[in-house]
Amino acid sequence: xxxxxxxxxxxxxxxxxxxxxxxxxxxxxxxxxxxxxxxxxxxxxxxxxxxxxxxxxxxxxxxxxxxxxxxxxxxxxxxxxxxxxxxxxxxxxxxxxxxxxxxxxxxxxxxxxxxxxxxxxxxxxxxxxxxxxxxxxxxxxxxxxxxxxxxxxxxxxxxxxxxxxxxxxxxxxxxxxxxxxxxxxxxxxxxxxxxxxxxxxxxxxxxxxxxxxxxxxxxxxxxxxxxxxxxxxxxxxxxxxxxxxxxxxxxxxxxxxxxxxxxxxxxxxxxxxxxxxxxxxxxxxxxxxxxxxxxxxxxxxxxxxxxxxxxxxxxxxxxxxxxxxxxxxxxxxxxxxxxxxxxxxxxxxxxxxxxxxxxxxxxxxxxxxxxxxxxxxxxxxxxxxxxxxxxxxxxxxxxxxxxxxxxxxxxx
Length: 412
Prior knowledge:
The structure is a single chain. The protein has 412 residues and is α/β, with parallel strands linked by helices. The protein folds into two domains: 4-55 and 291-408, no CATH class; 59-277, Aminopeptidase (3-Layer(aba) Sandwich), CATH 3.40.630. It is 31% helix and 22% strand. It has a five-stranded mixed β-sheet with strand order 6-3-4-5-13, sandwiched between helices. Strands 17-16-21-18-19 form a five-stranded mixed β-sheet. The relative contact order is 0.19.
């Protein structure tokens, strides 16, 4: 598994999607100067707290293509640190990528169609602020081999699932319960009806992955976990078949990103089947499932969010506000503790505290406490408090009209 330090050195430029709203927390010159001071010998002595490493969570992009090799469905998969099971994050293949001229949208499917799997992996990395380890795009047969150990798969659909082949359209899944072999299930993941928008395929794709997770349960018979280094985490499997075997070796969680078709005549004048999405949702899920894969894209603070609240929309809102203020969200946790009355920031350096004080603009009152330990690559730990819930109702909100420029990370 590539270390976080190596990732930072290798990846210094990330183009964000055009839907991410950004307001830099402090001038870049101030931030760069602060990092230079903090990384000096004297500063290391000041902040030499006990340090923990983020557990390693290998990642892969798994695409499924139809018989014309058009990308039909897409998942970002993260293994658990224990090496068995993990999280499946479903993205629409029509998701819009950033950096395009207005009125000329480009989709993930277009990237794969024109530039191949490696370019698709890079586009997903840019969307999720992450570094992905492996990528694979297969047709029905190849994908069926990857999930074969799941055995019998039983999805339930709210309507018939149809697929266009040449001049004809056939039903590949019927409304109601279905009993599938792995190859039947992957036919759903590869299905594309030429007369329908992708938004009609999102539900059956989610239902199929949910059914795969249910079939696997606590772990599929014969599936092999990834190697694990104690106190470090799972190691990246040698190839995608080994990666998927590790995924099927333990419980699987499935999350589908919300997406809205872009119908604005200025942004999408040719009415392409293209979709917008909430970047904060992507970052929230990735920082929860694969924190070791996250890459800081702003030359500012990198933070951890701890939320005592079970509602994921609260965490998503906190993530959005941090991204809006140009803050890197690296780790997100739901913690089973009583919420503090006031949102609390744990810091280990006075400069970090000073840089974080503007967060009160979008978080409300904040209590500051000195940290007793550090996590590698993370400057601040933010514990959401009861007052943040109140602030969401009555406090300031980010300006949704702000459009970000591309951003550079600070070279190590």
